[in-house]
Amino acid sequence: MGYQAVVIGASTGSFQALKIILPYLSSDFSLPVIIVVHRHRHSNTNFEHQLSQFSSIQVLQAEPQLPISGPSIFVAPPNYHLLIEEGRTFSLSLEKPVHFARPSIDITFETAAQVYGSGLIGVILTGANEDGSYGLTEIKKKGGVTIVQSPESAAVSEMPTAAINRSAPHKVLAVEEIGPFLNTLDS
Amino acid sequence: MDENDIIEIDLIIQAIHLKYGYDFRGYSKASIRRRITNMLTKAGFDTYASMLHALLIDETLFNSLLKEITVNVTNMFRDPEVYRAIRQTVLPALKGRSPLKVWNAGCSTGEEAYSIAILLSEAQLFPVYQIYATDIDEQVLKEAKDGIYDLKKIKDFTSNYQLSGGLESFSDYFTAKYDHARISQQFREQVVFFNHNLVTDSTFNEIDLILCRNVLIYFGSELQNRVFKLFWESLSPGGILCLGSKETIMFSDFADRFEALDPTNKLYRKK
Ligand SMILES: C[S@@+](CC[C@H](N)C(=O)[O-])C[C@H]1O[C@@H](n2cnc3c(N)ncnc32)[C@H](O)[C@@H]1O
Q1: Are both B120 and B232 inside the same structural domain?
Q2: Catalytic amino acids of A?
Q3: Burial code of A23-49, b = ≥16 C-beta within 10 A, e = fewer?
C-alpha cells in the first residue's frame, strides 16, 4: 500500500519555508497535505489565501467532519487543536495549549499516525519550539516516513534540532530538497 | 497509544457508561481517547486496565476525572462579535416574546449564561425572561451557581464585554473581594443551573434562544444529529440556535429545518 497523507509542522519562519516547498508539488500530487503552523490567535491575515498564491493545489482551512482526501492542502485553523479521526475526517478541540501551542503539532501528528500508520509522511520545518518532536517519533514508531528540515537551512533551528535529536528521522533535508523528495513518495 | 491501549481506552468509555450512565461513546474518537490518555498521566496509573478498575470502584476518582474528559474552558462574552450580533439582530427579532426563554446547553462554569443575563438586562426588551443553563458536570454547575471568578479573569471579561458593544460600567455587575469577584445577585437569580445530558436527556419546551457553544465540536456526526433534533424540538417557532465558531448545522440531517440568520456568527433560525 502506498502513502496516504503528508503532515507538516512548522512555527517561526514557516511561511518562507512553505513558499519554497509547496511550488514543487504539482496539481496532480495525489496525497492530502495537512499543515499545522503556530500563528497568533487573533491573526487576521488569511494564511490559506497566501499559501494558495504559490501552490497549484487548492488550499483549505481544515474543518470538522471535512473528509481528508487529495489533492488538497489543509491548514489547521488558529487557536484550535486539529485531530485526525478514524473515518479520515478532522475534529477540533479547545483543550489547553501544549508546549504553549494551539494548534499543537504533536497532537495532529500523533492522531494522524494512529489513523494512517505506515501510510503517513511527517515533516518538521523551522521553528523556535520543541513541538512536533514527540509527534514525529510517534509517526516513526507506526512505520511512517519522517523528514526534518536541516537546521542549517531553517530560519530558526530549535524545532528541527529537537526533532532530529528525539526521533532520529529517516531524512534530514535542505528546504529545497523537501518538495522533490515528497514527489518521489507519491506513486 | 498502541492497538491494545485503544482497546482498553474504549473499554473505559464503555465502563463509564455502564457504571455511571455518562455516554461518551458517540464523541469524536481521537479527541476523547487523547483526553483519557491525559487522565492516565494525571492520575498516575501505569496501565489503562488498572485505571479502568479504579474508576469502577471509586466514584470520587471518576468525578475528578470527569472534568478532564469534558473540557471546561470558557469565558464571558467569548467571541465578542457573536454577542454583538445577539444584541443587534437576535434580541430585536425575538421582541414580544413573553416570557422569553433561553437555554444555555453546556454552560460549564456559568460565564456564558451570565453574559446572556447581562445582555438581556441591558436590552430592556423583555419584561419577563428565564435562563436555563445546563451541563453534565456537577462540579462546574456548582461553580456556576456560586458565580465567583478569579479577579485575573475579570480583566478579560471586561475587555470582551466592551468588544461586544457593552457600554455600561462592567465592574458594577460584580462585588469584588480579595482576589475574586462575585457576579451580582440580580444575575444569579435570573439563571437556573441544573444537570442535563444532551446525549441521554429529553427536550425542553418552547425555548426562544438556545446557546450551545463549543460543546458539539467534541461530538461525532451521529451524535450531533441527535442533539440538533433535540434542539429543533425544544425551540418555539422562529426560535434561534447559536453554535460555537467552528460548529455548523449545515452538514447535518437538520440543515433544511433551519435557516442561516447569520452564518458567520453561527446563528440559525428554526423554520
Ligand atoms: C468547552 S465547554 C463550553 C462552555 C461554553 N459553552 C463556552 O462556549 O464557553 C464544554 C462544556 O460542555 C459540557 N458537556 C460535555 N458533554 C455534554 C453533554 N453530553 N451534555 C451537556 N453538556 C455537556 C462540558 O461539561 C463542558 O462544561
Answers
A1: yes
A2: 11, 38, 131
A3: ebbeeebebbbbbbbbbeeeeeeebbe
Report whether pLDDT(A42) > 70: no
Element (H, E) at B210: strand B207-212
Q: Which domain holds residue A78?
A: 5-185
- Asked if residue B138 and residue B40 are part of one domain, the reply reads no
Q: What's the B108 CA to ligand 1 centre distance in angstroms?
A: 6
- Select from A85, A92, A110 the Cβ nearest to the Cβ of B246: A92
Give SS3 for B135.
strand
CA–CA gap between residue B250 and residue B257 (Å, rounded): 10
Domain with B191 in it: what CATH number? 3.40.50.150
Q: Compare CB distances from A94 to B1, B28, B73 and report the shortest one's residue.
A: B73
For the segment B7-31, what is each residue's pLDDT rounded down to a tens digit? 999 999 999 999 999 999 999 999 9
Q: Are A25 and A180 in contact (CB under 8 A)?
A: no
Task: Report percent pLDDT > 90 for chain A.
Answer: 89
Per the CB < 8 A criterion, the answer to whether B236 and B206 are in contact is yes
Task: Say yes or no: A152 contacts chain B, CB-CB below 8 A.
Answer: no
Whole-angstrom distance, CA of residue B93 vs CA of residue B29: 38
Kindly state whether residues B253 and B130 are assigned to the same domain: yes
